[in-house]
Amino acid sequence: MRVVHICDDFVTGGIESVVMDLCGALQAKDIETSVLFLYGRDEYPQRERTAEVKPLGMERRIRMDPRGIARLKSLCTLMRPTVFHCHGYYSALAPILLRLFGVRVPVVYTVHAELQHWGWKSDFLIRRVSRWADVVTALSPPAADCIHKLTGGRITPHVVMNGINPNRATPAMGFSRELKRQNMGVSPGTLVFIMVATLFNRKDHPTLFRAFAKALPQLGDARLWLVGDGDQRAPLEALAASLGIAENTVFLGIRSDVIELLAASDVFVLSSHIEGIPISLIEAAFTGLPIIATELGGLAYLQRQGLPILLVKERDVTDLCNRLLEMLDNSRRSALASSLRSSAHGLFLIQRAAEDYMQLYRRLSPAN
Predict the structure, then answer these.
(1) Which of 58, 119, 183, 347 has the fewest C-beta atoms under 10 angstroms from its C-beta?
(2) Is 10 helix (H, G, I), strand (E, B) or coil?
């Protein structure tokens, strides 16, 4: 059996990391894997790869670039995939379009977030791709419900919760938390909050900034580390300055040492108003960081499954501020850290996700 994953991009990010971890887990079960991506350049760290990666070189402005579809058709002849596992609706649309040319390979379409109404075009495409794919999966029951409603009840996705390779969430041998903090200009007693997310509107950094500014007089010499980049960086830098938190807020950009930064931090924060089950949150759980996150469907689902994350109301500055202040209690942080590590191993092992997907692959291709 050969599973070819297709992503929109291949950058340092949650979807790309889980695809690499999944490839590694599948290969351990003697399943061949490869990864294709539609747009942009290959920017994923070489040392974290577990599968061959190839670009299709599509033009993002065209989306379904005919030349990219032609390349995909040629690669099908070479790779002979048993299943395409697609991580985005454009990624799934590409192999579906191959059916027009007589190339029929089963398509698994995975929904990585709770879908919002982005506009008529996106809603139309998501509905069509969900109906044309052979199997639709979602990372949580709330995400599955979004597809169920969007398709008028025609599609009920299988729920396969995200997982990671816990070894990847462990700093390399010889790592020193104290030295890392020292190199980052942070003293031993400084309380460090970290958010790992693209700097996009849906991540709602402004609510976190306002809550941090409100809490800062009581937090003292605290820091807010922001890992990630995006089109909101300049407005966010201006907002930090206007709130008087610029000296305490560090824009770290895209980093290759995310696990070390998590291990050097004290609290993980996620203020998004659109999420699935983010890999950064899972990595924080394995690291043992207390987690404060918005009370969204997938995150509330994780709490019900036993993950002791602290939830706050969406866009509620006061609620988030109070949770930040709660983290001044060292014993509270330690208790949460211990519980999170234990729960993470029960919920988020990539081997469990790989087993679930393998059952779906075999159902689509019983001869293998």
Answers:
(1) 119
(2) strand
DSSP string, 297-314: HHHHHHHHTT--PEEE-T
One-letter amino acid at 331 equals: S
Put simply, whether the predicted model's pTM sits higher than 0.85 gets the answer: yes
Which of 245, 233, 246 has its CA nearest to residue 199?
233
- CA atoms of 326 and 333, how far apart (whole Å): 9
* pLDDT at residue 119 tops 90: no
Contact 268, 281 (CB under 8 A): yes
Chain centroid to CA 320: how far? Answer: 22
The maximal CA–CA distance of the chain, rounded, in angstroms, is: 65
The arrangement of secondary structure in 173-347, i.e. its CATH architecture, is: 3-Layer(aba) Sandwich (3.40)
Superfamily of domain 2-163+350-364: Glycogen Phosphorylase B; (3.40.50.2000)
Q: Residue holding tokens 């409100």?
A: 214
Tell me the domain boundaries of the chain.
2-163+350-364, 173-347
The string of pLDDT tens digits covering residues 18-72 is 999 999 999 999 999 999 999 999 988 888 899 999 999 999 999 999 999 999 9
Residues 6+ apart with CB under 8 A from 46: none
Burial 203-220 (b: 16+ CB within 10 A, else e): bbbbbbbbbbbbbbeebe
